[in-house]
User: Fold this.
Amino acid sequence: MDTGLKRELEAKVFAGERLSREDGIALYACDDLAWLGGLAHHVRTKKNGDVVHFNVNRHLNMTNVCTASCAYCSFQRKPGEKDAYTMRIEDAVRLAKSMEAEQLTELHIVNGLHPTLPWRYYPRSIRALKEALPSTVAVKAFTATEIHWFERISGLSADEVLDELIDAGLESLTGGGAEIFDWEVRQHIVDHATHWEDWSRIHRLAHSKGLKTPCTMLYGHIEEPKHRVDHVLRLRELQDETGGFHVFIPLRYQHDFHDSRDGKIRNKLMARTTMATGAEALKTFAVSRLLFDNVQHVKVFWVMHGLQTAELALNHGADDIDGSVVEYKITHDADEFGTPDKMTRESLLDLIRNAGFRPVERNTRYEIIREFEGPDQARRETPQPMRV
Ligand code: SF4
Assistant:
């Protein structure tokens, strides 16, 4: 990128002017990562100060049985496959209860599109989980794809489905099922029936009912930077309309080689993909932060980025990190990084402080639960022992 264009874009960002599609594409074409990170850091600091948010949550996948076969997905199993599973509601409750001691504030639930589970299973699960857990634990559950599936299996409208789930205790949808909205890419990676029209319809509806929801983007597979830009601009437009997204989450596609348990390759994109490098990941965070000017938070999901890239993402536009995650199956079935299955509150605090920020624990609604001390100056001034 030539210096003239850099100065032009800087001026826009510092004046708080909205960036265009062309600006987004130009930013992706720029290899000056330090400059991009600096610009994004300026914006994240203006919006969120020196704070990095985190929450203590539990990811729960009640079934991995799915009628769809999305090209990138290593999680789904077909009925009868050896490690296909579906939890009874009591088992899901027992699992969630086993986490109580960790003071979680959020249960995050996504599932496969099970071909025969009745619709009633879902509101009953939410109700049972809410009844069993302390009132401080919010249930964030189901992608827009699942809500669309529930319409199909229940014969109800999304309006009725959401009303019933909210009545059972649902406090937020999850942001998944977005992947990349552009059909040019989407037709090759997504096998279910939920595309931009239905995804946006369902989130719009959720927002109209007072729910705040996250939104995501799966990047680093067969899409080009222009598709990432278009994806974010669609979400930005919807956000102009509803104001209902509280966070944007770029998710790095996992290029796996085999499933660790049965050796089967389920990822059909394998032959055509590698995976976004750390630098590409940081660029995606920075450009997303700069383009998506009307969303308050950008979150890094460390399970999909590894801890070191996640730490660096906090200096490239992200102000939120998820989370104390246990047993995150959808990603971990595809993980080659040896990232741990979970992080404790303490290791998360260390990571945030090491990146130079002040940790703040939040709940699902982004209300502050607890504030912590910022970086430890003494630790920064003393050489640290190597961790092995
Ligand atoms: S991404 Fe979701 S809908 Fe697609 S195959 Fe996997 S579990 Fe099923």
About this structure: The domain at 3-373 is CATH 3.20.20.70 (TIM Barrel). The first strand starts at residue 51 and ends at 55. Residues 66, 68-70, 73, 75-76, 112-113, 145, 191-192 surround iron/sulfur cluster (CB under 6 Å).
